[in-house]
Write a structure and sequence with these properties.
The chain is an alpha+beta fold. Helix content is 30%, strand content 48%.
Length: 61
Amino acid sequence: MNQVKIFDSRSAKELEKDMNEFLQKMKDSQPSFQLIDIKFNSNHYGNEITIFHSAMIIYKN
């Protein structure tokens, strides 16, 4: 069964760090872990120049 994990951050570096930690944890603890896809998006939020970065990891366990 496919599963998803969603990440959200104001910093692309922080988002990357969180995703890498999740992927490493899954790889180490779940031998059957299979990465299917990663979707990434950056959006401006409101009238300010604040940018939010989001990612979704699709995987099979």
